[in-house]
Specification:
Elements: E1 4-13, H1 20-38, E2 42-50, H2 54-62, H3 67-84, E3 91-94, H4 98-113, E4 117-127, E5 132-134, E6 140-141, E7 147-148, E8 156-165, H5 171-180, E9 185-186, H6 188-199, E10 205-206, E11 208-209, E12 217-218, E13 221-226, H7 228-233, H8 235-238, E14 257-261, H9 265-279, E15 287-290, E16 293-295, E17 298-299, H10 310-317, H11 319-328, E18 336-338, H12 340-369, H13 382-392, H14 394-403, H15 407-428, H16 430-436, H17 438-459, H18 464-473, H19 508-512
The structure holds 5'-O-[(L-methionyl)-sulphamoyl]adenosine.
5'-O-[(L-methionyl)-sulphamoyl]adenosine binds next to strand 1, helix 1, helix 7 and strand 14.
Length: 515
């Protein structure tokens, strides 16, 4: 039976323009989605925009637009960025859509029916920038004795009537969840942090506001709009048609993977499961938090003017180079820095040299010496068998790693084989065999073409455009690009198109640094 796989990105706030940090989580989720499709799963991949809340309302006012016109414009820009980044989403949800508003209200009612929502008054510290409430004990000292949120965001004392969610009642159930299902959240650093936060005790959570209007009205009390996180988290369900159990998409629940940034892990691993427990809805299988990007060692900020729009990098280097770098630079889960120099260095060494040259050397030798057709697989030497056996293990090895969100380790597995292929080609020297043993030359090139086919197949999720070109050059038709298709050898004699370089070399940054 085909397995269903539901993967989500966070829905992005529309209070500012999309940047590389947003692209990051989406690229990672896209790799997982594409990988699962190649493995034969029926995938549902959701992304979208988070459009309510005071922060968005204020940003719209500052831009001199109505909140709706403002969110329409910025949401379209996020969608355009997702398209540029080749994010293969199946659905893009906007929290201002009627389907979402209805679903969020239905979830509220379901939670309320459990008795875990009550009306009270909220008095406490609120950080607008984080759209989060903080306890007195969590605050840190800022300049001039000013109190700040632990994230450094300014806080204000807020007092207003509010509905509360009885989060305090969920402490034990949440701890039990983390203990019983260690795979529920990762990476381990994030898991430990969340567990100690929950162990310290949970306060009830204010889940409605009356001081602004731009939100989902609370059912039966339209003076209140929902706290933006109650509204936002419910998107993972409302996009499947919740509460309509007849919607076929509901079969994708529970989600297999919520990918999020580390700053919002707490909302996904504490609030979200507690809301779902209250509503009697199954919990997602896994929440995984990625690290944060700095740029040339600095935090990205409007005031520093160093906010990177990934589309600028894409127009200069191509989408796959950017996708590759984002995942390759640091083990997925950790923090990372985007420096132009190390970006270009990786493109040159790993893409142009390691992989690009391997393909170019193999394919041009086939074009020149084998009439441009795929050679026969001959009797295999030990070296041939060894190389191919390693390459054939790639899909299952990488599947296990992608399953753990070890997206960088999975790439590294492919690179081990690429390096092994480079060692093989140097050692076998097919260019020399041309004179001494042309038949063996053909066999060697076929081993390389077969290994390259596996490599290009498994790398499709990371670099869809260039692997598409590589597979075409290797004579692999569109229907022969899944993991299952790898079991069927390509027929010898298949004509290959003229080879063309796939990964260019860049000189600029290395020259600039006088290297
Ligand atoms: N709207 C909420 C999410 C609701 S999900 C139910 C939100 N939006 S956000 O636009 O502020 O952030 C979305 C994602 O972008 C988060 O996962 C966050 O970690 C990520 N990033 C924002 N800046 C980033 C970097 N500089 N680096 C890496 N990721 C960053 O939070």
């Amino acid at each position: 039976m085909t397995r269903r796989f539901y993967v989500t990105t966070p829905i992005y706030y529309v209070n500012g323009a999309p940047h590389i940090g947003h692209a990051y989580t989406s690229v990672a989720a896209d790799i997982v989605a594409r990988f699962r499709r190649l493995a034969g799963d029926q995938v549902h991949f959701l992304t979208g925009t988070d459009e309510h809340g005071q922060k968005v309302e204020q940003a719209a006012t500052a831009a001199g637009e109505t909140p709706q016109a403002f969110t329409d414009r910025i949401s379209a820009d996020f969608r355009a960025m997702a398209d540029t980044m080749q994010i293969s989403y199946d659905d893009f949800i906007r929290t201002t859509e009627p389907r979402h508003v209805r679903g969020a209200q239905a979830l509220w009612e379901k939670v309320a029916a459990s008795g875990d929502i009550y009306l009270g008054a909220y008095e406490g510290w609120y950080a607008l920038r984080d759209e989060a409430f903080y306890g007195e004990d969590e605050l840190i000292d800022g300049p001039n004795g000013q109190k700040l949120a632990p994230t450094g965001a300014p806080v204000e004392w807020v007092r207003e009537p509010s509905y509360f969610f009885r989060l305090s009642a969920y402490q034990d159930r949440l701890l039990e969840l983390y203990e019983k299902r260690p795979e529920f959240m990762g990476p381990s650093g994030s898991r430990n942090e969340i567990m100690s936060f929950v162990r310290q005790g949970l306060r009830d959570l204010s889940i409605s506001r009356t001081s602004f209007r731009w939100g989902v009205p609370v059912p039966n009390d339209p003076e209140h709009v929902m706290y933006v996180w109650f509204d936002a988290l419910s998107n993972y369900l409302t996009a499947l048609g919740y509460p309509d159990t007849n919607n076929p998409l509901m079969a994708f629940w529970p989600a297999d993977l919520h990918l999020v940034g580390k700053d919002i892990a707490r909302f996904h691993t504490v609030f979200w499961p507690a809301f779902l427990m209250a509503a009697g809805i199954e919990l997602p299988s896994r929440v995984f938090a990625n690290g944060w990007w700095t740029v040339e060692g600095e935090k990205m900020s409007k005031s520093l003017g160093n906010v990177i729009d990934p589309r600028d990098l894409v127009s200069e280097f191509g989408v796959d180079a950017v996708r590759f770098f984002l995942i390759r630079e640091v083990p997925f889960g950790g923090d990372s820095d985007l420096s132009r120099r190390s970006f270009i260095h990786r493109l040159n060494t790993e893409l142009a040299n390691d992989l690009g040259n391997l393909a170019q050397r193999t394919l041009s030798l086939i074009a020149r010496n084998c009439n441009g057709a795929l050679p026969e697989a001959g009797a295999r030497t030990e070296a041939d068998t060894h190389l191919l056996a390693q390459a054939e293990l790639l899909p299952s090895l990488m599947e296990e790693q992608v399953g753990r969100c070890a997206l960088t380790d999975a790439l590294e597995e492919a690179w081990k084989i690429i390096r092994a292929c480079n060692a093989y080609i140097d050692h076998q020297a097919p260019w020399a065999l041309k004179k001494t043993d042309p038949e063996r030359m053909g066999h060697v090139l076929r081993v390389l073409a077969d290994a390259l086919r596996i490599i290009a197949t498994v790398l499709q999720p990371w670099m869809p455009e260039s692997m598409d070109r590589m597979l075409t050059q290797l004579g692999v038709s569109e229907s022969e690009r899944s993991f299952a298709a790898l079991g069927v050898a390509l027929p010898a004699g298949r004509e290959l198109p003229a080879p063309k370089g796939i990964f260019p070399r860049y000189t600029e940054a290395e020259d600039e640094k006088g290297q």
